[in-house]
Amino acid sequence: MSSSCPLSLKIFLKSIRLGRVQNFKQCLYRDYIIGAHLLRRTVSNNFYEGSRAKLFSKDNKPKWEPSKLELVSDEMVDQCLRNIDDEDLECLELPDHRIESRL
């Protein structure tokens, strides 16, 4: 975990905590929103930096921003969990019937 992205670690922790009180559909929607924020670089370029370091350059030395857990603010984490107000972003649509019954 010491080499993992500090921002991603805090997002993951908050997502797990929120998931304890949410249903399956809410959890899928939250994960979709987080993924959209990461790909849109809403808070940082870390997704692309990690991809560069691990997959393309293969130097395994990503330069995370922020570089330490204590530098990741609650506001940064919360921003990655907010709904995205963009009419070009396709909303995640889940069927109305129970998803859990398929699992």
TrEMBL record:
Pathway: Amino-acid degradation; L-valine degradation. Its EC number is 3.1.2.4. GO terms for molecular function: 3-hydroxyisobutyryl-CoA hydrolase activity. Keywords: Hydrolase. It catalyses: 3-hydroxy-2-methylpropanoyl-CoA + H2O = 3-hydroxy-2-methylpropanoate + CoA + H(+). Gene3D superfamilies: 2-enoyl-CoA Hydratase, Chain A, domain 1 (3.90.226.10). Residues 1-81 form the Enoyl-CoA hydratase/isomerase domain. One of its GO terms (biological process) is L-valine catabolic process. It is an enzyme of class 3 (hydrolase). PANTHER family: 3-HYDROXYISOBUTYRYL-COA HYDROLASE, 3-HYDROXYISOBUTYRYL-COA HYDROLASE-RELATED. Belongs to the enoyl-CoA hydratase/isomerase family. Hydrolyzes 3-hydroxyisobutyryl-CoA (HIBYL-CoA), a saline catabolite. Has high activity toward isobutyryl-CoA. Could be an isobutyryl-CoA dehydrogenase that functions in valine catabolism. This is 3-hydroxyisobutyryl-CoA hydrolase.
